[in-house]
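Message: I would love a firmer grasp of how sequence relates to backbone shape in proteins. Thank you; the sequence and its tokens follow:
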Amino acid sequence: MNRTAFVCLLASTLTLALMPVPQASAATGSWHVASGGAVPDGSFVGGTTRANTPIYICRVTGDNFKIVGRMITPKGAPGPGCVYVKEGEIIVDAEEYEVLEEHPSYTWQDWADEVPEKAIVSGSGVGQSNNTHYICQASSPEDPNALIPGKFRDRDKICLIVYGKSPGLQRTVHETTSGFKLLVKE
């Protein structure tokens, strides 16, 4: 009888040891594969230009990184592709990318010095496993009515957006540490 009780206790102890520990969990989004400036139907509108043109959230995958960017498609025509900021503030246009799918529970949450539990993880920086990226949205310095999606780097708490003209013309990287929002999945 004692031996049986010992086996039950051991089995019970193992079961408890294997139970998952509740943790804060980041949310993930679903992404459409796209290329050539196309925006698939059902894509999430992450912001607008000063002319009220939709801006979509895209991301590019490379060697050891996934970086979020933005796409502007004037009047439904294919745009220039996914524009993103690589490490070192280099602005890059990508022909092959993913576009964030629409989801009814996405909402923008004001930055409050801490990444919300359900913030959408969009990727990570080049070769930096400890540098999680999230999706942020900030006003353009040129026009506060233009809301532009970008990447939020967790390691230094900065939202980076690209604003300005089309490829080949002047575009600028804007960094901000306040007054922006993060995309969360409620």
About this structure: DSSP finds one helix and 15 strands in the chain. The radius of gyration is 21 Å. Residues 83 and 93 are 5 Å apart (CA to CA).
